[in-house]
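BUG: 3D viewer hangs when loading the predicted structure for this chain

Environment: internal workstation, default settings.
Expected: structure renders.
Actual: progress bar stalls at 90%.

Input used:
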Amino acid sequence: MSAIAKAYASADQEIIRTLEITPAGIDPTRVCTGFVDRTLTLENASEAEFVAGPLSIKRPSKSASGQQMLSLSIANVTAEGQEAIEAALESGEEVPVIYREYVASDLSAPASRPYRMTLRGGAFQGIMIQIEAGYFDLLNTQWPRRRYTADEFPGLRYI
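Structure tokens produced before the viewer hung:
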């Protein structure tokens, strides 16, 4: 049984949930649950500083809908964090969002595999932000993925 599974089953250890939003050209915004700022080791063995804050996370439901959205609420967003998130929302580019979980007794690596998503949208309400991030968008993916065009297959011009 993994450390994260034991922590969920027994509730004897604190589970630290973290969120990292990395807009292009701006330093990543990192938030963790709890009351103390933490230096945590990422999956690539580098260390990063996470700012403590009220972080509410609603995981995607397990369904066959094709939409896997993670809903996040962050309260008491600082001015720097608000500017970074606004820049990410307005950029129109894919902004990576990484969700990690740590067990308080072992901060040397995430306790489970990180969830890597893309920022889909968000809205500010005072000092609180509501963010939606999603996985691979299966519903809007073309099939077949490889398109047969005359540029790639010149013989198609004569059909």
